[in-house]
């Protein structure tokens, strides 16, 4: 009987720790999502796109100050954009898109950078890969992306900051 009580108490303690841990993890996750949305809003503003953090949903359409429309995606959910490219262009174009993101990250990413954003135009053949240094307080890094459908290749070029 004593063993059953000890076992039951052990189960109760483990259950409580799990619930508490999940609660904290959920709060941390929500805080992280909120910070990412705020950083993405700042990054978009630097690209001439004004939007509220609450409006930033993956594959949402956003417009720059000149009225050009882009499809927005967070780098952490870039698979949604990759699937769209796969569906609307080709499997090879999507695979190349994954590879170009990897090349950009290897070449430019540093510890403390914000989570990058991806913007592609409605043709899914031109856009930007952008993030900010020093947890959103530093230099804006913007990479112009373009897709050559003849070669099924993506290319990229870093844009210099605009004054």
Report on the structure:
The protein has three helices and six strands; from the N terminus they run H-E-E-H-H-E-E-E-E. The longest helix is centred in the N-terminal third of the chain and has 45 residues, at 2-46. The termini are far apart. Helix 2 packs antiparallel against helix 3 (91-108). A six-stranded antiparallel beta sheet has the order 1-2-3-4-5-6, sandwiched between helices. It has one domain (2-159). With 163 residues, the chain is an alpha+beta fold. A hairpin with a 4-residue loop joins strand 5 and strand 6. Helix content is 45%, strand content 23%. The model is unreliable at 12-26 (pLDDT under 50).
Number of strands: 6
pLDDT < 50 runs, ≥5 residues: 12-26
Arithmetic mean pLDDT? 81
Measured by DSSP, the beta-strand proportion falls in 15-25%
Radius of gyration: 21 Å
Topology:
Layout: H1 2-46, E1 61-63, E2 69-74, H2 78-88, H3 91-108, E3 117-121, E4 126-132, E5 140-148, E6 153-159
Antiparallel strand pairs: 1-2, 2-3, 3-4, 4-5, 5-6
Helix pairs in contact: 2-3
Structure summary:
45% of the residues lie in helices and 23% in strands. The protein has helices spanning 2-46, 78-88, 91-108, and strands spanning 61-63, 69-74, 117-121, 126-132, 140-148, 153-159.
């Amino acid at each position: 009987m004593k063993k059953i009580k000890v076992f039951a108490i052990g189960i109760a303690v483990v259950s409580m720790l799990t619930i508490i841990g999940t609660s904290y993890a959920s709060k941390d996750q929500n805080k992280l999502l909120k910070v990412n949305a705020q950083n993405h809003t700042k990054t978009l503003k630097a690209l001439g796109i004004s939007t509220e953090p609450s409006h930033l949903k993956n594959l949402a359409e956003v417009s720059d100050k000149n009225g050009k429309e882009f499809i927005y995606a967070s780098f952490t959910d870039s698979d949604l954009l990759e699937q769209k490219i796969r569906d609307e262009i080709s499997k090879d174009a999507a695979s190349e898109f994954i590879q170009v993101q990897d090349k950009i990250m290897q070449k430019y990413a540093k510890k403390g950078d914000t989570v990058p954003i991806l913007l592609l135009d409605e043709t899914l053949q031109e856009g930007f890969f952008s993030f900010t240094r020093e947890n959103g307080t530093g230099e804006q890094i913007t990479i112009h992306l373009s897709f050559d459908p003849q070669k099924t290749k993506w290319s990229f070029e870093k844009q210099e900051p605009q004054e």
